[in-house]
């Protein structure tokens, strides 16, 4: 058995090994299919190839990356998605249809990419069949066996129960073999799952074929932890992980209940610096400028639709809290009635909010209402990717009730963010807590690589309407 449903850390961001395995396998399938399509173009007597063509290797690489991007945008590499084979095939088909349409446009604009009149369709059809076979046969047979992790949890309290909730709700690649009590206490896990302390921890690990021990003990003082036994396990090649690091790795969030100040101070992450800020600013300006060019017709039509339905103003201005707690004015397309807050009291926007106009419901669903925030990015108030900025009224409330809430203001807020692509829209204290856990992960681990991952997942959110409010 491989080292379980393990993660690999790439530029401070955790990615499941099984996802990288699938990505590598499908990349080989796509490259092979595209080469076959090219062979068809060359051998066909009526290929109609242009006089000037790009090198074969470059053409293959560009088309493979192109298809992998559309597949990613359709959520086909989302490790948190567990769905029926039919839905996976639908996503796969949509990804290749979208890829074919966009590739056809690219060929029209750049004839050097042309593979001949029918070869593009042949290439994409072969790649689709290869990907479908890879996912339904090879991956469904290999990954459940190869990427299964067996975990032993040290502790039986509420923290230990949170590990059970994680596995039950999300990750099917982790198997909890049992819970080991550290001292008599109120148990929050099923009694039948608690392992008797009749043998050493190392013997229990060997008997249950454990890959990892997760420390889920709140109070570690007074010799509660079996330190010597844990050392024996560690020297025996068994991973020993504290609960905060376990949640960061498996859920890509910082679990508030398991956090402590010393872990945040002495652990990795939370890096700031001139180089990182310069790279992020360059990325913000480049991405915002490109988005303006792409979405300008959409923004003009949206402005016209808002004006025809409900008159002026077209844009909605509102105070939000940014980096360092500084208050700035955010711009959005107005999606609610003019008297949405006629009593003067700020309100969270809820699902199916009756204050939303007909145009407003559509542009919220498609996230078009957020586009004017490009102005905030260009002005330097916001970043393209970061925690969503909240209103001062809500920030004051949430900071008084939720620990570490102010940490999200250590970087610039963003148009889109890790919490927005990982958690559906919510308007309650519990939702704010859940989203903060994702925001803290981003604050701790943000890099250009993670920003690009967020943008790709944002496309998926828009296409599939996840989290719209």
List keywords for this structure.
469 residues, 3 domains, four-stranded parallel beta sheet, two-stranded antiparallel ribbon
Please summarize what this structure is.
51% of the residues lie in helices and 10% in strands. With 469 residues, it is α/β, with parallel strands linked by helices.
Structural account:
The chain has a 4-stranded parallel sheet with strand order 4-3-5-6, sandwiched between helices. Strands 1-2 form a two-stranded antiparallel sheet. Strands 7-8 form a two-stranded antiparallel sheet. The longest helix has 37 residues, at 274-310. The chain has 3 domains: 7-146, no CATH class; 149-266, Rossmann fold, CATH 3.40.50.720; 274-464, no CATH class. α2 (56-73) packs across α3. Helix content is 51%, strand content 10%. With 469 residues, the chain is α/β, with parallel strands linked by helices.
Neighbour order of strands in the largest sheet: 4-3-5-6
- Total DSSP E strands: 10
Q: Beta fraction of the residues?
A: 5-15%
Quick check: average pLDDT? 83
Counted by DSSP, the helix tally is 16
Number of discrete domains: 3
- Biggest β-sheet, characterized? 4 strands, parallel
- Tell me the helix content: 40-55%
Determine the N-to-C terminus distance: 43 Å
Tell me the layout of helices and strands.
Blueprint lengths: L6 E4 L2 E4 H27 L12 H18 L11 H25 L9 H28 L2 E6 L3 H12 L4 E7 L20 H7 L4 E4 L11 H9 L3 E4 H9 L9 H6 L7 H37 L4 E7 L5 E7 L24 H8 L8 H6 L3 E3 L6 H10 L12 E3 L1 H5 L6 H17 L2 H17 L5
Parallel strand pairs: 3-4, 3-5, 5-6, 9-10
Antiparallel strand pairs: 1-2, 7-8
């Amino acid at each position: 058995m491989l080292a379980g449903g393990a993660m690999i850390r790439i530029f401070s961001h955790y990615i499941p090994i099984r996802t990288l395995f699938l990505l590598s396998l499908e990349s080989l399938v796509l490259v092979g299919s595209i080469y076959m399509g090219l062979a068809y173009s060359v051998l066909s007597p009526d290929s109609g190839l242009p006089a000037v063509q790009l090198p074969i290797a470059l053409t293959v690489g560009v088309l493979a990356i192109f298809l992998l991007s559309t597949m990613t945008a359709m959520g086909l590499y989302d490790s948190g998605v567990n769905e029926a084979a039919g839905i996976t095939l639908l996503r796969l088909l949509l990804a290749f249809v979208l890829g074919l349409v966009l590739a056809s446009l690219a060929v029209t604009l750049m004839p050097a990419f042309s593979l001949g009149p029918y070869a593009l369709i042949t290439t994409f059809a072969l790649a689709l069949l290869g990907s479908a076979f890879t996912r339904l046969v090879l991956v469904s047979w290999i990954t459940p066996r190869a990427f299964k992790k067996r975990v032993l949890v040290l502790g039986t309290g509420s923290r230990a129960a949170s590990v059970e909730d994680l596995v039950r709700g999300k990750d099917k690649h982790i198997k909890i073999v049992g819970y080991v009590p550290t001292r008599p206490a109120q148990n929050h896990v099923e009694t039948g799952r608690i392992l008797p302390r009749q043998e050493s921890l190392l013997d229990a690990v060997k008997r249950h074929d454990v890959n990892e021990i997760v420390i889920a003990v709140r109070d570690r003082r007074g010799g509660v932890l079996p330190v010597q036994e844990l050392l024996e396990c560690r020297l025996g090649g068994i991973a020993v992980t504290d609960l905060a690091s376990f949640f960061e790795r498996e859920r890509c969030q910082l679990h508030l209940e398991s956090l402590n100040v010393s872990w945040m101070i002495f652990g990795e992450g939370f890096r700031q610096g001139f180089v990182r800020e310069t790279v992020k600013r360059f990325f913000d300006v480049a991405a915002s400028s490109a988005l303006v060019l792409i979405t300008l017709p959409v923004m003009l039509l949206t402005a016209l639709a808002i004006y025809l339905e409900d008159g002026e103003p077209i844009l909605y201005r509102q105070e939000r809290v940014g980096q360092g707690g500084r208050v700035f004015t955010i711009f959005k397309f107005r999606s609610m009635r003019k008297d949405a807050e006629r009593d003067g009291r700020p309100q969270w926007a809820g699902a199916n909010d009756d204050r939303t106009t007909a145009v407003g419901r559509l542009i919220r669903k498609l996230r078009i209402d957020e586009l004017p925030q490009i102005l905030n990015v260009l002005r330097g108030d916001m970043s393209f990717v970061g925690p969503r900025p909240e209103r001062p009224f809500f920030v004051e409330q949430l900071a008084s009730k939720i620990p570490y809430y102010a940490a999200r203001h250590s970087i610039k807020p963003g148009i889109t963010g890790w919490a927005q692509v990982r958690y559906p829209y919510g308007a309650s204290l519990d939702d704010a807590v859940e989203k903060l856990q994702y925001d803290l992960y981003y604050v701790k681990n943000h890099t250009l690589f993670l920003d690009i991952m967020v943008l790709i997942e944002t496309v998926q959110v828009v296409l599939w309407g996840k989290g719209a409010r």
